[in-house]
Design goal:
The strands form two sheets. Strands 2, 4, 5, 6, 9, 10 and 11 form a seven-stranded mixed sheet that branches. A four-stranded antiparallel sheet has the order 1-3-8-7, with no helix packed on it. Helices cover 0% and strands 50% of the residues. It has no helices and eleven strands. The radius of gyration is 14 Å and the shape is globular. The N and C termini lie far apart (40 Å). It is mainly beta.
Length: 128
Amino acid sequence: QVQLVESGGGLVQAGGSLRLSCRASGRTFSRNAMGWFRQPPGKEREFVAAISWSGDSTYYADSVKGRFTISRENAKSPVYLQMNSLKPEDTADYYCAATGSVSSSQYVAARRSEYRYWGQGTQVTVSS
């Protein structure tokens, strides 16, 4: 069974930092672009950040640009989301996702429809 498992969520004060991790089980995602999405309470799931399978290309939502960093050491390693300068509006359930296999090492995806595999989510709460 293919799974993506997120970890690292929790409660943090505004201005603080958290690092989320996304690990795969059941298979590797060495030729898959990866992404992070979030769903604030009562709102739609939204794109946060994406990274190519090579790790060379990244893309961010404007709301997190300059504060969050998505990374992966190599195509088979976990994917991380370093979140700095957190704000109360960053409070949400955060989901890791993987696209289907792609040939381009630079491909990144920002739309939910481009992702095939999803984790169960990890909760992030930022207090003011």
